[in-house]
Amino acid sequence: MPKKWTISPGEIFADLPRVVFLGNEMVIVEGHKGIQSYSPEIIKIIRFNEKITIEGKNLEIFLITSEELQITGQVERVHFERG
Question: Cross-referenced Pfam families, in alphabetical order (predicted)?
Answer without folding.
Answer: YabP
